[in-house]
Amino acid sequence: MVIEVSFRTRALPALCTAAALLSVSALQSPAAADPDDGKKVLTIALSQSVDSLSPFLAQRLVSTTVHRLVYENLTNYDAADGRTIPGLATGWKSSPSKLIWTYTIRKNSTWSDGKPVTADDVAWTFNTMMKDEKAATANGNFTANFRRVTAPDPTTLVIELKRAQATMTALDIPIVPRHIWEKVGDFGSFNNDKTFPIVGNGPFVITEFKVDGFIRLKPNKTFWRGAPKFDELMLKFYKESDAAVAALRKGEVSFVHGLSPAQAAALRKTEDIEVNDAPGRRFLALAVNPGARSRDGRTFGTGHTALRDPAVRAALFHAIDRRELVDTVYQGHAVEGEGYVPPRFGAYHWRPDARQKRVYAPDVAASLLDGAGYRRNGDGRRLGKDGKPLTFRILCHATDPNETHMGKYLDSVWGKLGIDTRLECLDNVSDPWLKGDYDIAFDGWSVNPDPDFVLSIHTCDALPATPKDTGSTDNFICDREYDELYERQIAEYDPVKRIELVKRMQSRLYDTGLMNVLLYPNAVEAYRTDHIASMTTMPAAAGNLWGQDGYWSWWSAEPAEGHGEGGDGNSATEVVVGIGAFVALAVAVGLVVALRRRATADTRE
């Protein structure tokens, strides 16, 4: 649990010494903006570092959020209700067989370097993903079923399918400029972070980037929907959430997301700060390592073999009181977990019935272990089939205090079953995860209005090709019954029938005990009303601002009257993260630690 700072911070005097105030710009920014330039800057505090600025590779929520600002998809989602609306494509139609889809590409979209966006850019993006497995790392599930993609003329795109595909109006793939990207040699290693400004066609253009530091963006003046109102959008990385909250209070940042209950409660009492608490689009789960393997049949990793026993998995989760986690850890700012798709997406949300549900029942958990032959020794410790006491490693993100709190809870309740745990909280959980070197891990994904992506990452096809490859799998799950349901839902155009298939997939995933949804966290975020006059939530009623299925919040944001006038001493690239020299130095050092894929539970779009 994050402990709220017990005093109100103030803007530090301009004559603070270097020992009292250390900024990231002093360490790594060669070109800080003049503090009195009068620019209206919208500054967002990030709790997650970027994994890649390449749309072909990026999977973290922060990265996919940035890509929505920089590159357009064929279609978008309406901010009010999430329905499909035109994006780069102004219209689309299918053949009677629904195996050929034709899209009309808008004429009034241009790349930020002045060149027109054409259907050829779209065709090249998709064909590259179809031909190069590395280019398909992030979004290959959308193009795996494409037979042929062509651009007969600059405003016409034609996609021919191998079989029916229900996601043809929800292809969440950023379209990139061919004249820039066709020069890339290796899509697996190119991170798109060396040449600026980065050419795109969305509402913003990336002009500067520092690893684990910041991303600077400027408005795209030629964006067809109209340029954003702020002069600059700045995303700053903070390793410690308390430092981000302190920066919000001092006016050094405009917006903070991922607040703890204590932080939100304190900020509600702070002048010029508005707290937004909305139903989230994420789930938080415990992922059980089923035994890491690759598509070529090889196994790897160090996952505990006892967890391949369904009885053990069922016992572990009968011992968890999800309601207690909602009440104590999240203090009511979450909903008890059930199905894989959060309740915010009502049509696809699934709930187990009374017979299927793994209710909180410690006695049932103990009986399952006894019945499966996992007996206690004289010390009360539960023994595995090899006669050794059971000890499970729990992989968690050091940047998320809620996971640490829940890890201690799991140690307590599973300890009563005679099972020991070892909590391994790391800044970088990517390496052990990709290597399969974990037993149980905290896992979380954001879900789109169409849930196909988060369903696809548990198919056999998502496994890495070899142990040395990455793949798009989340947890090395490969279940033939689940795969058969996945193939049926992706080919089902009838929305009622498809919804039923998606629910059956969630039911199957639930029964395996390999992905156990603990809860659905609320989107708890805050912004300064003296910086931001208004912006659009998604959905319009009780919606979130950060991590939307679109670019609506930051594109629509209106600067507050007087914001940016006269300068406030806050350089756009300067990240002030401390009050005293010790705190500032500790955080600044933390900012240069390079993280990879899974930096926080906010993993994916």
Keywords:
605 residues; alpha+beta; D-Maltodextrin-Binding Protein, domain 2; Dipeptide-binding Protein, domain 3; seven-stranded mixed sheet; six-stranded mixed sheet; 17 helices; disordered N terminus; membrane; SBP_5_dom; transmembrane; Extracellular solute-binding protein; signal
Give structural notes:
The structure is a single chain. With 605 residues, the protein is an alpha+beta fold. The chain has 2 domains: 41-279 and 524-559, D-Maltodextrin-Binding Protein, domain 2 (3-Layer(aba) Sandwich), CATH 3.40.190.10; 282-521, Dipeptide-binding Protein, Domain 3 (Dipeptide-binding Protein, domain 3, Roll), CATH 3.10.105.10. 25% of the residues lie in helices and 19% in strands. A 7-stranded mixed beta sheet has the order 8-9-10-1-11-19-12, with helices on both faces. A 6-stranded mixed beta sheet has the order 14-18-13-17-15-16. The relative contact order is 0.19. Residues 85-456 form the Solute-binding protein family domain. The chain crosses the membrane at residues 575-595.
